[in-house]
Amino acid sequence: MPLDIYTDGGCSGNPGPGGWAWVMVQKTFQGDTILAEAAGSEQGTTNNRMELLAVISSLKAFRVMRGGVSRRATVHTDSQYVQKGITEWILAWKRNSWRTSSKQPVKNQDLWMELDALAQELSPEWEWVKGHAGNRYNEYCDRLTREEVKKILPKS
């Protein structure tokens, strides 16, 4: 039975203190069960890095939970940067030695390379969801992300 993974990342300022979160949900006819979740934070980062770290962390957890069983997952992200990056843009970036169409180095190449390896190994489906639009698990990840950022904001 496939799993649904919802991810989010964000910053207070860009760059600035950032947070990321994910939740892994098993949906059945009996209802939803949250199987796992995680969140984290970093100082001096960007929204895009946090979005990528959320997905990378979730896929690492999925790999462990899967335990060698052929299980499918769909990653739901509200980041078009992540969704289009992994499904469309990455092919050209790799073909062009990690350069963009304007011949600039790809930003966050370290994370893109890690995500690419995980995506090739685990073959998740990728689905963009509109952020702040009432999706239960996207909203939950957004709340966890904001809580992580609050933890590291300077106290005034």
Describe this structure in words.
- With 156 residues, the chain is of the alpha/beta class.
- The protein has one domain (3-80, 109-152): Nucleotidyltransferase, domain 5.
- Helix content is 43%, strand content 29%.
- The protein contains four helices and five strands.
- A five-stranded mixed sheet has the order 3-2-1-4-5, with helices on both faces.
- The mean pLDDT is 94.
Ends distance: 48 Å
Strand arrangement, largest sheet? 3-2-1-4-5
The fraction of residues in strands falls at 25-35%
Fraction of residues in helix: 40-55%
Order of helices and strands: EEEHEHHEH
SSE blueprint and pairings:
Layout: E1 3-11, E2 16-28, E3 31-45, H1 47-66, E4 73-77, H2 80-95, H3 109-122, E5 125-128, H4 136-152
Parallel strand pairs: 1-4, 4-5
Antiparallel strand pairs: 1-2, 2-3
Write a compact overview of the structure shown.
With 156 residues, the chain is of the alpha/beta class.
Core attributes:
alpha/beta, Nucleotidyltransferase, domain 5, 156 residues, five-stranded mixed β-sheet
